[in-house]
Amino acid sequence: MKPTLRAVAEAVGVSRSTVSNAYSRPDQLSTELRRRILDAAREMGYPGPDPTARSLRRGYVGAIGVLFTSRLSYAFTDPFATQFLTGVAQAAERHGSSLLLVPLPADAAGARKAVENAAVDGFCVYCGGDEEGEIVDAIRSRGLPFVTTSARPRAEDRWVGIDERAAARSVAEHLTGLGHRRVALLADRVLPDAAPGPVRVGDLADVPHPTTRERLAGFADAFAAVGVDWSQLTILSATDNSRPAGAAAVGAPDSLPEPITAVLACADVLALGALDTLREADRHLAVTGFDDIAEAAPVGLTTVRQPGVQKGRRAAELLLDPPVDTDAHQILLPTTLVVRTSAGPAPRS
Amino acid sequence: MKPTLRAVAEAVGVSRSTVSNAYSRPDQLSTELRRRILDAAREMGYPGPDPTARSLRRGYVGAIGVLFTSRLSYAFTDPFATQFLTGVAQAAERHGSSLLLVPLPADAAGARKAVENAAVDGFCVYCGGDEEGEIVDAIRSRGLPFVTTSARPRAEDRWVGIDERAAARSVAEHLTGLGHRRVALLADRVLPDAAPGPVRVGDLADVPHPTTRERLAGFADAFAAVGVDWSQLTILSATDNSRPAGAAAVGAPDSLPEPITAVLACADVLALGALDTLREADRHLAVTGFDDIAEAAPVGLTTVRQPGVQKGRRAAELLLDPPVDTDAHQILLPTTLVVRTSAGPAPRS
DNA sequence: TTGAAAGCGTTACCAG
DNA sequence: CTGGTAACGCTTTCAA
């Protein structure tokens, strides 16, 4: 039986408040008495105030939650997610908070429940898909602060992110500038249950994931500007945001519905996978990525850089000490086109 | 003002227990009543039972803590730590638990406090240094279960790990087999405040970190077996367990106290750093690592593989559903010597 | 500087 | 199946 604060109080012969003060407000009692209490506590094996009870009473937990749409183990496997988490961890650490990593079940009800059960002071919503609405709703009804990082939210909510569409457009323009006209766009789960490979997407609005939607739209913008419209673009869907899934999605490049000269991926990991497949097939198409993860540079991947660590850090800061000025509640981070060698000029046809 | 369970009860005209049951024990009331309660709750904006209050009452949190000795952001940066976390996350996820990542301040008192304040059901102690004693002590006095992963603990404690010494010895024997006799051992913080580079270590017992101590001992075993004793080995200390720190520790290879033909690192990241420096200096020494992280294969690093993901997974499992048989509370994982190209035969002198 | 009283929001037990 | 009562372990006024 663990001793409680009460037991210590009785043993020392003081009131519970005094013992509590000995731990939490040393200035409220004499050094000598405090010493006596702490000593007695140690002797009795009292481990200090129970964190749960303390949280309940104080209304403050000392931890922030990070919500992952995909499997939790993903968090440590995906390079961009890792960058983001590093940033969050930096800010949390400085603030003295812990990080609660919350895996979200795929079903909306389960996700809601996960949010409702997390003992935290606020949430970083990392990359929600279409279920983000449900999640945000659950957080809001708990009355906790949160920061989102994908599609731009309501004006009153906190957000840190990039201009997805413009960023995507910038790589795509690089490709149109190089003469590419027949291209494939590669993204994770373009449509809900798509098999790996080409899919028909009648309308961009059908794409569930907002970030993917924005990036595809950005790509499309650039091609539209040179007279290539949406229906002429090949869309490749991966089953996952991972290198193998990217490789699988490209499949047999020669059997694609349309001949292409370039692949524009919505993430570096996908682009890397595409490169794997193409190298295997000995095809030399132009490939571009998105994010600029560490693995991109060594293989010369042309991509758009977004500051992942900073994104995480600023998200956590927004949560932990929000700027008084509400105008500063939404932070737009810069992106840069990083031109390397993976995307050369289109072959003259 | 967030509504509470009590408010819902009053609104519906039932007792608090009934509302509570509606959430936590659906079988305790009629479907119809439950529906009415849940509907009313939704309407009032009641987000469901407060997680903190629930934890206090139930005596169960639904989260396990992972304790990091080094900076928290390390967790996502260090490849081996990442593997470990992935494993922990897998197990936690399956069990429906969240992961609380707890950064430990460098000072013992702070670390103790961090442990005492974490609202969790148990701890995975990842890689404690010499302060592990203090930490384990704090956990124990809270009466929570824990699993450690470094030096083998008391018989009654849970542990998952490898035979550090034998594993280290196996790489070292590979090197002695190749004829190496004058070598340097490279490790993270061999002595408490060592500057990067060579240090004198009179006695292995002076090395604070138990894992490092074991690995160095294993290396030494192999060399002792061929007549090279401890005092003839050069010890290189890094300031950190990272690639740059490894690079810095090797410093100017030609200015080392003794000429060497090989560097045995206690971690792949350090070995990688050493390789960076040596390549820079155009020196072609043999280099070996430890862990077999993903980056090891591409550069042909000879190393010892330990199953990182599995280590994390089994640690978490040991915590989440401990085997009834206490004999199974300590799990020894296998290691394998992985011979690649980074360590060739010693030059004939 | 100390202590008494009043919760924080739940859930468990047990009687009805 | 329902509801009253008593905690869970602590912190925080507020008055002494």
From TrEMBL, chains A, B:
It comes from the Bacteria. Pfam families: LacI (PF00356), Peripla_BP_3 (PF13377). Keywords: DNA-binding, Transcription, Transcription regulation. CDD domains: HTH_LacI, PBP1_LacI-like. InterPro entries: HTH_LacI, LacI/GalR-like_sensor, Lambda_DNA-bd_dom_sf, Peripla_BP_I. Residues 3-58 form the HTH lacI-type domain. PROSITE patterns: HTH_LACI_2 (PS50932). This is LacI family transcriptional regulator. The lineage of its organism: Bacteria, Bacillati, Actinomycetota, Actinomycetes, Micromonosporales.
